[in-house]
Fold this protein.
Amino acid sequence: MTTIEITLSVLDSLYDAAKAKGAWNCKVSLTSFREEFVKWVQGFDAGDEIVKRAENQAQVLFKKIQRHRGLHTRDKAAVDKNEIILSLSLPGNNAAPLASQSELCQQDKRRRSKQPIDELSSKRHRYRRLEPLIEQIKATAEEENTEIPHLLGLILHKLYYHSDRRVANIASQLIDISNENISKVAVPVASHIKSYCNLGREGYQRLTRSLKTSDLDVLPSWKTVRAYERTLTPEVKELEDKMGVEFDYKEALGKSAEQIIKQLDPKPTDTKLTLTVKDGLDGSGSHSIFNQDGNKNTHNIVITMFTPLSLISSNGDTIWVEPSPASPLTCRPLSLLLGKETDDVLKSYYRKLALTRENVRQESLQVTVSDCTYTIKVDLTLSMIDGKMRGILSGLGGAFCLLCTVSREKAADPQHVCSINRSSTEIAEIWRKLQSGELVKKAYDTDVRQGVTQEPIVSWEDIAIISPLHCFLRSFDFLLKIVYHLNAGVFNWSNEEKTLGYQYRFLKQSKESVRAHLKEQTHLAIDIPDSTGKGGTSTTGNVVNELLGTEKNLTTFVSQVPERFQGDMHDICSRIYAICRLYNSCEKLDTVKFQELCSSTKEMILTKLNQPGAKKGWIYLTPTVHAVLEHAPELVEANDGIGLGSFTESSLECNNKVLRLVRMKLSRKRGQIENLSDCLERMFVRSDLEVRLAVAPKRQRVRQDYYNFKHSFNGPQPFPSLSDYYMNTIVLK
């Protein structure tokens, strides 16, 4: 068998392999090679010289075939088989053994010199030149059962350890990187990343693909994360008349209690537990409608939420306490309702919610964790509501104070002392008389009707509390109104132009000048209406803290009143700020001193800021300030002398902006029910305890609490402010 016959046989074998594997480009090339070779041989007569020239031409064709990459990438096994055929020593008429590829390259004197790889103009050409080396490195790494970075690191370290230590150090890093085991992150961690980085499906999948391109396939798939999150959330139910969506309250509480017990180590041995929960609801405005088919024409949504506060054993020992009861991350959604808080349609849901809350109180939850079943009693407190919602739920829409029966005029008497004296039985009886006609509504009949305007939806005992956050903001509004009037020289509590007459112009100018002065001196925007149309003003809790809690800013604020009132006004502001902060705290208080501070502050407000020579005061306490100064000590005493900061509604208020974000960017827009369902599920997962604790929280900034400054009463250093002095004297160390 001559070399020419061997060449034709190899070409036929490669042709068959290319045809079987579908490598058509390679097949066409091999066909042209074979036709060219046969045509060349037929042009000469037989002879030793012709055979020799045929062998040289065959070697050129072998090199062309072996350089061709199309078949190599598609059918490596076929190429290896044919390379074995080429390397055989075949007997024949003066036929010499076929040389290997490297020997053929050395023997081919007509071979053109290669252009240096760095001089190649195209990346594609450079990568194609490196393909044989890459394939060889892959094969070697697979044969040695190691990673390619590890293999390259060993090669570079061996070659450059003595000549170039910089390259050797890089090689060592490659070896170290390859030794690191990159594992998948846990599904709760992935859910934490998805929830707190506000990633939808597209964003999460794009992040996953981006990490994969860097050989960091660490995130579980979207389907895996969603399947995990479905186990955390109850079933979403649609309310009648497409009014909104909700979770079953008992199921939502059961899921929350289960996650709390799972996080405990060791697990509680007592199977009879009590879960303390605060709940409430609030309206959120300026929501988009998205022009969906069949939508309710409303831009308002009422959100109902709850927060687990503590888990207590049957003998009274506290097993678990929520460390951040005021955080929006701990507040869990229960329902989303379309409409305003005052809509009659929503009042039917409030009654249904009241019945559900009563059933939850009476029926215990059954939660199974690690083959152990716990019976959990739920203690609910309806504290996360503002004054407007409190009036709707209690039926006391015409009352000055929801905790007592005092009128506005009596509350302005410095000598009058009030106490909590309402009861749900009395309110229900007054409503029954109004319905039966025994009582007739009249103007100024506070002593008889006691402010009852509608049927109570919940028991009065459920709302017998002062909202901690709103008492703080409304108290500052009260102080700001006093500053406006004193600055204008208007000793009349009214703000209406009809009542003030020509003095209304002075009051309006006073408001503008006070706002401008505070903006210039303290860089704080005070009492400026919200320009986005969402309602409210720029006066937030942080703004109030910065203004009243900093001595420099407080002095600037007080300087806007006449000089003869500045000393008393400074003391009053410090006192009210201290009272609100103490009421919003979770510390043990001296209730006797707290009562004395509140009583003396009320007397100062009603007597020290009057016009010289006036026989009657001009200031009327607002309902919130009256409740804080008169009833806050009673509520603190009823709470075992501990401030009511854990019952704050700030967590629910903060979730209004979270709801807007989720509705706009992270939920379906094809219908209101689908949109609200996505919002409810995402916010529930976001507040799940396991998801929240999947990633260690950021390091908290170390600071001294407002009531615990390291100052001595007898020392030379004074307290940072007068409010700090009041707080330090009342908090029990």
Summary: DSSP finds 30 helices and eight strands in the chain. Residues 69-105, 107-111, 699-719 have pLDDT under 50 and may be disordered.
